[in-house]
């Protein structure tokens, strides 16, 4: 038999194969690597396992297998270009330690004892037993001189000294335990009996465990033998597979079919004996299993008919159970599920119906808005637009057919804003320019309330300024119209050329006073109309802010903490929402009050201009005192009436009247003074004596401040004086 020898020269690892029995040499590393892939590699699935080593195990590559590329890297690194020879090192080292060389497949053969520099460098010698002496002496695991730990400080007698017994600790003897022994003796004997009984049971358990252990060892031995032939029991065993064939016949890849060497015959014989041993092992295991399970086999054979009957009954029972379950499923489960599906379907239909109703309502939004606008229901139209936009954004969001409706509603809302502005301007113009013969203060109140609610709903508070400007225009127009009518009625003035003010100055006192009274009456009527609008607007603003109760037919039957409307005479829906805040309410009411005051002031200003135009030619200066007093009374009556309307007095007309009165009094005083001076200049005066009664009368008036006659004193003689004494000053008296 050819085998590996114990000594061989140092050659490159890829020159020869240390596992194969033949001494064939390789010329190139590539040829050696191909040899390892062909004869010392097994493929399991997609992985490669290196078998180049003792017992077909590579010491460098795990048994799990690697990829093709990793296998090439492993062969190049550990078997071809390694310094120590890879598998060669492991093989030769093991053989050197045992004194034998393994041929890879045959038995171990003896080697000669000649020195080998390659193998001897790994042997253990006495030089490997050297230890570092300082490290040994400083071993931290050893206790350092425990005996002299205390004696070096307290002396040699510290550790060896006798301990004197303490007089406080009594000496304990056997007599101290007699009472305890008598008390526990019965328990101790019972404990001994129980311990003996437990010992017997423990021995029996130990014997059973030993038998079980022996049985387990036999099972493990059988399993170990079976593990050797697990390849033959594999479901993938097929000798047509080259890997399996090479594993079963490991020498076929290196031996030719015509080899006549004795070693080849011996290897074939060993393989045949090995396979025969495997067969015997399998037969023994089968016989052992049959012997251990014989009772079960015989019982299964004897009860086969009974099992068939039971199986038939079980099949019938299962069939009946399935039919019952099917009927239950049809009658109970499916019907219940059908009810649930129908309920869900009904809910979906109801939801779809409600959505279709909403869509139908939204589809009718534009015609409804147009109808409301034709009926002057601005607040209803605006609420409908707001509600429709909310529905479009929430309930009908994403519906393609309504994608343009939102913008259309926004455009209609802007159109309603313009309509409100135009309707309010038109209404105020018609209301304020009505003839003065119409004594109704406020017409079409329902329309006004609707417009105001719409403007408040849109937070458009400029209606106050619009009404103020329109009122100014109306006041100016009514004054001019009144003057034109008065001038037209005067026949002697119609033919005169000039402005309206020049024609008015041609009127006499009576006609001018009638004109002034007519102007005052017309202005008062206009102010009362403005006050009526103010009252209605304040009530509407109060209702819009939630502070005033809406005047409905059922409002008198309800108790409410809200204020009652004072000027509204039309019914308003009681479900009016709060449209403005408290701050907006205060601001709007203040603006309305300021509007009324400004209208009154403007009326006074127009009257002042009328009077100023009349007095340019000194008309008031030519009036008599009675005529001027009449004029003042008319002006005072007008101011009193306007004060009742707006709640405060106006200063412009009063100031103008005061200035004219001052000029009239000054002119009257100058005329009377001049006349009196002329009279005094034309008369002859002579100083007379002052009787004592006159002096007493003057003194009494100066002392009391009242014009009264003092009591006469008869017991006193009095004589006349030359002068009259008043506050210490002397005055001459003529007569």
Automatic annotation (TrEMBL):
Record keyword Coiled coil present: yes
InterPro entries: Vps54, VPS54_N
GO molecular function terms listed in the Swiss-Prot or TrEMBL record: syntaxin binding
GO CC terms: cytosol; GARP complex
Keywords: Coiled coil, Golgi apparatus, Protein transport, Transport
Vacuolar protein sorting-associated protein 54 N-terminal domain ranges (all copies): 273-428
Keyword check for Hydrolase: no
Region Disordered: start-end pairs: 83-113
Pfam families according to UniProt: Vps54_N
Subcellular location, record wording: Golgi apparatus, trans-Golgi network
Coiled-coil residue windows: 304-338
Highest rank taxon of the organism: Eukaryota
Signal peptide: none
An individual GO BP term: Golgi to vacuole transport
Classification via PANTHER family: VACUOLAR PROTEIN SORTING 54 (PTHR12965), VACUOLAR PROTEIN SORTING-ASSOCIATED PROTEIN 54 (PTHR12965:SF0)
Stated family: Belongs to the VPS54 family.
Record protein name field: Vacuolar protein sorting-associated protein 54 N-terminal domain-containing protein
